[in-house]
Amino acid sequence: MAGSLRDKSLTAFFWLILDKLGGSSINFIVTIVLAWLLTPKDFGLVAMVMVFFEISSTFIQSGFAFALIREKTISEIDKSTTFVFNFVTAVLFYLLLFFCAPAIARFFNQDILTAIIRIMGLNLIVESFAIIQHAVLTQRIDFKTQTKVRFLAVVISGVSALILAYFGYGVWSLVGRIGIMTLMSTIFLWVVNPWKFSLKFSRQSFLKLFGFGSKLLAESIIDKAFRHALQVAIGKVYSAETLGFFTQSNNFCNMLANNFQQAIQKVTYPVLAKLQDNRKKLKEGYRQIIIMSSFAIIPLMVIMGVLAEPLMLTFVGEKWLKSVPFLQLLVIAGITYHFNSINLDLLLVLGRVDLCLRLEVIKKVIAALTMFLGYKLYDLYGLVMGQVISNYIALLINTYYSDKFLDYPLLEQIRDILPTIVFSAVMGSLIFIFLYYVPLPNSVILFVGSGLGLMAYMLMHYLADTKEIALLREYIIPKTIKFITNKA
């Protein structure tokens, strides 16, 4: 990447890391405390209906945010057109969910879902007011402002949820947390990035933005529907409590895998979109992102998988122990999240959303088959195993166009991160030996084992003098020190 653009992207990534260390850490701590105060069933009830809100939210955005971010300059008519469309669509989907709520409640045999859906549905309307602000700030690569907004919203919503849970409001503390988070984020975004409200609608602007976003919309709907299909299946076939165990394990996995993947995607898409006309620099940019993201994510996933049981027992207690097998399976899938995301981002950067849609259809057909076969062979855990396997098949598919457009095939990507893969495997083996042959309390095993494992991992990289260490030593660490010094 060009020097100034690389500096800007690194600064943006610093703010996103602060977001994850700050906002996401607080979010995770709140989730842990709520896990002690609430029951697995409470978490399962909210998880049952999230698929409907995820899909509704995707329809409301309709790929417009990505279309706006890709624009070199965002015009006022583009903003107002996007806002009008988003708001009207949000109202329509809220009405649809409002009247369908009783049928959804009957499907899951949980009468309380009617009220939950009708109240949570209001978030769709509130959220529609923040899409423009998010898109504009992301297009400017201004993650500093978004980090501050999210941090405040997380703190306020988290404290509110804890108060509600303490006074016995059960599942409503989770519903309230989501609603307050959405409301606070929207209000703060309007405060820090005000926009002159307009209801103008341009057919030309709509066709331009929707032309890019429509295929992305279809791809996102398919992705989110299948991503939540597993939760719907568990909630329907088994129980809200079982779904609660799966949801809690998903929360732990997402704390690392999805948070890192989302942080990487937020930075790489607007930054690399500016390099779309220079394939040589674009490939080098992707290479550095894959190397450094794998350097951070893969060892953390390995640690979480090996130490899953002491992790659960330490943070959320014995009543959540049934979440451990789910977490270990999800961690195996989590290793691929950033890989799949980065390779798909290439198609968005190049404007080939038609190919994104084609790949998504192929991948989801394969995912449906692997999950069905897994369920038939191994019941509940086989269902989850099918989803894990489909993630690795998806990686083979997603890297096809990386080879075609950037001459960066999967084998070359694996070769670039081979030291990280090998050192993570060695580290995981050392932690496994420590776990089963050193009799210590769970909390001690968790913190000492992960600490020693990371030290061993970094030492192996240092002794091998890998590209990751060189990039850390020559660029990232000096820039980090300069960033911290400037902020101090």
Query: What's the story with the biggest beta sheet?
Result: none
Q: Mean pLDDT across all residues, rounded?
A: 82
Give the helix level as a range of percent.
over 70%
N→C terminal distance: 27 Å
Number of domains in the coordinates?
A: 2
Query: Radius of gyration in whole Å, from Cα?
Result: 22 Å
Order of helices and strands: HHHHHHHHHHHHHHHHHHHHH
Q: What is the number of strand segments?
A: 0
Strand content: under 5%
Describe the structure concisely for a colleague.
By secondary structure, the chain is mainly alpha-helical. Helix content is 86%, strand content 0%. α8 (143-166) packs antiparallel against α9 (171-192) and α15 packs antiparallel against α16.
Describe the 3D structure:
- This protein is mostly helical.
- The protein folds into two domains: 200 residues, no CATH class; 250 residues, no CATH class.
- 86% of the residues lie in helices and 0% in strands.
- It is globular and about 65 Å long.
- The two termini are 27 Å apart.
